[in-house]
Amino acid sequence: MGSNPTKVADGEVPDEKLAGTLSENRNIYKMLDMHGGGVLIKLARQCKEFGCYDMLDAYLDQEVRKFMYNAGKGKLMPIAELVKARNQERNAKLGAFSRKKGKGKSGPNILDEFDQGQAEMAGDLKKALKLLDGGGKGGKSESKYREMVWNLDDRGSMGEHVLAICLLQGTALHNIIAKRLIHFFPKLINDICTSEDYYGLSPLHMAIVNQDAQFTSILLRLGADLNQRCYGAFFCAEDQKTSRTDSLEHEFVELTKNTNYTGSMYFGEYPLSFAVCTGHHDLFRMLLAKKANLNAQDTNGNTALHLCVIHDKMDMLDAVLDAGGNPRLANKQNLTALTLAARLAKKTESTQHLELMDGLIEQILDEKWKAYGRALWFRSLLGFIFFYCCFVSAYMLRPSSATTEHITRGRINDDGETESTNSSNYLQWHSIDTQCHLMYYSEWPWYHGWFRLGCEVMTIVVMLFQILFDLGDIRRIGFQKWFNFLKAFPAKLMFKGAFLFILISIPCRLACSFHEFLTIDNTMAIISVLLVTQHFLYYMRAIPFVGPFVLMVYTIIATDLVRFAMIYSIFLVGFSQSFYLIFTSCERDSTLIKKTDPLGSEFNNIMENPVDALLRTFIMTIGEFSVLYREMAACDNFWMKWIGKIIFLIFETFVSILQFNLLIAMMTRTYETIFLTRKEWKRQWAQVILMLEMGLTPESRKMHLLRYTRPTGINKRVRSYVVVSRGDGEKTENEELAAREAKEEQKREEREHEIKAKALALMSAKLKTEVKKRRVLRQQTVDANSRL
Questions:
Q1: DSSP 350
Q2: CA–CA separation, 371 vs 439, rounded Å?
Q3: pLDDT at 11
Q4: Could you please report the per-residue DSSP string of 617-659?
């Protein structure tokens, strides 16, 4: 079984040759390798020593020229063949299940019948290709052909040519060779790398990555292509590399739209984008001077502005905007530079954004508060107070005496008197008569009966209205967004949770005749009252002198208490079980002694089970340890008594003293941190306004928007919030007054200087006139004397 040679059609270049990386014999590295060696380096070093480059020029003209198409004049090749070779190289690196075949079909190679070596036909051939394909430079569609200069068979492992190797190394000798190369073969400046990782990488890209302004200037002066795009996988986003697919109908690589643009080498394909991502202002200005397209979009649709956002180049962002970058252009994900920055949301520890609270954001929040925030806040507060009064009244006006009678099974009547076991009232008592006493509204005084019923009905009606409003908000903005807003307000979250317990208590009340649900009803009411009362904290967040303290409570509970509870629970469980074993041993010894001596003292075991031990130990933590110590001292077992005292001492030292003081220190630190934050209340205030704004319909928000914005331009629908520009930062009234006075003083000094200058000019003119008059009089006197 032998391997038959693959037949290649006439005029078609074999795929193995197009993928230069598959060739084992790299003649290019004999001339110039990646380690600073090669024939060209030796010649360049000798020529530099002698100050004459004739030997280097002769080698380039005689030997290097052989590795180029048409002796350096270049050759047009079908894009489809280059893409096919790129696809084969990618699949060779991937596993069998990850390989992707190129899509589309390649058309016939219309260059087969042309002899591209004839110089007189080169210009006519390019014109014909423009007519046939509609491509070429300046065409609306991509050209189906690309001019290649260096032979594809003799390229390096990255599909590079000798000029690319010089730029990759970037030493002084390599720069000398590169300048001689582009002198002899100027078309090399647009010859690209052809490998999968570096496809489309041109000498201009390499010079920009090297931040070599001098060589970039040389390339631009010689006509380097400003629109050459680098599609290589090395310069692709990391989360898009697995989605790279080719089509024989175009040169660019197809990528998935789902990406977060991860990776530090995603530079945006264009030379101008490379300059932006490297942060080199001089190179950026050079490319702009050569009319590079500032708003060119790469395969992802990203412009230079998008790339500034992705790579956090704030200084370059200002430069691009000043140069005329369009901030409204959207990429393939339909994101502008602004919305892309919001989506990526690169969080850092920087506090610079908080400075906005003192300026524009604070003004907008103030306008929103005046427009609708204050009214909605007061309306919501009054509505909640009404609901709270009804709810608490419905709970507090319950006939507690009847509840006590039911719980004690008639031993205590509804008048609060204790019934004897022989009394007729006690003997005739039945639970069915009292288990629905909360439903007997007519049998109680008006405040325990009908008024309580009215409060309960109003509570349920207001709660149902609130639930309907919440369902409207969820339908309008979605549950996820609604819940995210709600999570920022624990008090409001507890308030919404109280509705669930109120709803559960309704069927419990109605089903009282079937079973004794009284205990569940009371439990639901107690939990509901606790949760509803916490809702006052939500309204307190909008008050300047209370809001930061509400946050302190939340922060201390969420951080300090949680950490303390995790550590404290370990000590609590361990020590409680130790005390349980000690008291159990003492009780056992006391039982044995009681058998032999019935008159002996009886030991009182206050920790009969592990749960009691846990609760007793917790009570001891907060200072009530006298009962435990007294009972432990009465233990008849000598060793258990002293072991218990030692464990008690250790527990008091490491838990009651050390850990609780540590908790106090942590809470103090949290308090001071929040108290010293000047802008904390503004953040609380902003959250309250956003929560109030969520309850408004889009139409209502638009109507309120008209109150604090102004139309910009002729189109009245386009509105903006007007801010008076005050220079580099916000100034106080005193600073503005001082600035105006300084300006007036400067004008006054300029006027005085001008008046003085005019006065000096007049005096000088008068002086000159007087001198002339004296000269004339002197001359007349001399003439008169001469006549005499």
A1: -
A2: 47
A3: 38
A4: HHHHHTT--HHHHHHHHT-S-HHHHHHHHHHHHHHIIIIIIII
Domain residue ranges of the chain, discontinuous segments joined by +: 9-225, 229-345, 389-538, 550-680
- Provide the pLDDT confidence category of residue 724 given band limits of 50, 70 and 90: low
HEC profile for 303-340?
Answer: CHHHHHHHCCCHHHHHHHHHCCCCCCCCCCCCCCHHHH
At 13 the pLDDT is 40
Describe the crossing of helices 479-487 and 450-477 by its angle, rounded to 10 degrees. Answer: 120
pLDDT at 15: 43
Strands of 636-722 (E only): list them.
Answer: 710-711, 719-720
Buried b (16+ CB within 10 A) or exposed e, 522-558: bebbebbbebbbbbebbbbbbeeeebbbbbbebbbee
Residue type, 607: M
The rounded distance, in Å, linking the Cα atoms of 18 and 85 is 6
Domain spanning 229-345 has what CATH number? 1.25.40.20
| CA-based max dimension of the chain | 172
Distance CA 550, CA 508 (A): 35
DSSP result, 126-142: HHHHHHHHS-STT-SS-
pTM (predicted TM-score): 0.51
456-514 pLDDT, tens per residue? 888 888 889 888 888 888 887 788 878 887 777 888 888 888 888 888 888 877 777 67
Between the two ends of the chain, the Cα-to-Cα distance in Å is 143
Side-chain half-sphere of 615: how many Cα atoms within 13 Å?
6
Phi-psi sector, 36: left (phi>0), alpha (psi -120 to 50), beta: left
Q: Collect all residues with Cβ–Cβ distance below 8 Å to 381 and sequence separation of at least 6.
A: 539
* 733 CB-near residues (< 8 Å, 6+ apart): none
List, in sequence order, the alpha helices (H) in 345-421: 360-368, 374-396, 400-407
The pLDDT, as a whole number, for residue 589 is 76
Which residues lie below 8 Å from residue 293, measured CB to CB, with a gap of 6+?
226, 227, 270, 272
Closest CA to 656 of 688, 697, 614, 624: 624
Tell me the per-residue pLDDT of 763-772, one tens digit each, with 9 for 90 and over. Answer: 777 777 777 7
**How many whole angstroms separate alpha carbon 780 and alpha carbon 775?**
9
Q: Give the whole-angstrom CA distance, residue 722 versus residue 424.
A: 83
